[in-house]
TrEMBL record:
<protein>
    <submittedName>
        <fullName>Response regulator transcription factor</fullName>
    </submittedName>
</protein>
<dbReference type="InterPro" id="IPR000792">
    <property type="entry name" value="Tscrpt_reg_LuxR_C"/>
</dbReference>
<dbReference type="InterPro" id="IPR058245">
    <property type="entry name" value="NreC/VraR/RcsB-like_REC"/>
</dbReference>
<feature type="domain" description="HTH luxR-type">
    <location>
        <begin position="151"/>
        <end position="216"/>
    </location>
</feature>
<keyword id="KW-0804">Transcription</keyword>
<keyword id="KW-0597">Phosphoprotein</keyword>
<dbReference type="InterPro" id="IPR016032">
    <property type="entry name" value="Sig_transdc_resp-reg_C-effctor"/>
</dbReference>
<dbReference type="InterPro" id="IPR039420">
    <property type="entry name" value="WalR-like"/>
</dbReference>
<feature type="modified residue" description="4-aspartylphosphate">
    <location>
        <position position="56"/>
    </location>
</feature>
<keyword id="KW-0805">Transcription regulation</keyword>
<keyword id="KW-0238">DNA-binding</keyword>
<dbReference type="Pfam" id="PF00072">
    <property type="entry name" value="Response_reg"/>
</dbReference>
<dbReference type="Pfam" id="PF00196">
    <property type="entry name" value="GerE"/>
</dbReference>
<dbReference type="InterPro" id="IPR001789">
    <property type="entry name" value="Sig_transdc_resp-reg_receiver"/>
</dbReference>
<feature type="domain" description="Response regulatory">
    <location>
        <begin position="5"/>
        <end position="123"/>
    </location>
</feature>
<dbReference type="InterPro" id="IPR011006">
    <property type="entry name" value="CheY-like_superfamily"/>
</dbReference>
Amino acid sequence: MSLVRLMVADDEPMVLAGLRTTLCRRSSIAVVAEASNGAQALALCRSVRPDVVLMDTSMPVMDGFQATEAICGPGGVPGVRIVMYGQSDSDEHLFRALRSGVLGFARKNASPDELINCIHRVHRGEAGLSPGAVTRLVSEFSRTCASAATSNGCLDVLSPRERDVLELLLRGLRYDEIAARLTLSKSTAKSHLRNICHKLDVRDRTELVIYAHEHGLPLHSRCS
């Protein structure tokens, strides 16, 4: 497992100290910087260039959402990936975080193993969302099928196999799980994702979740 150069941003000194102690026990994670507000997190990202930032949602000067938008947006800091965490993972916070550019979201009461797993998934470029969050996202866009007429036109550009892959991706399955479910190789599953992203004009798996929510994709299981 490759070493993750991590920056932690939180305005509570006790929380910072606890995270430092917890995360530094793992040889796979090195805490290379700490920030107490969003503006400081942005400045440190530019100078330290961590691999991943564990970003609190609520901080003074500039909150976690604003800092993430500045890091991930135009003129930001290329190559830095964000895991946002907070007391609440409400739908409002979750979708705002995804739109700001995060790849992962965790609650502050997550276990150390859950948090560390989320950090490593995001470091690999995968979505770091809890199964509960993925379920809620899928339920949410299932409830918005009123826009299905528009959505069906969007999905028409996908092949039946690509639609199968898309549904499993949005359920939160990993590439190896998708490959096993659909009797594909892992590389073929990844190739399908690239084709889906190209056809729907999104960048990655996280943007697919946002796209699904905003378009009310009427996905139905073909693979269970």
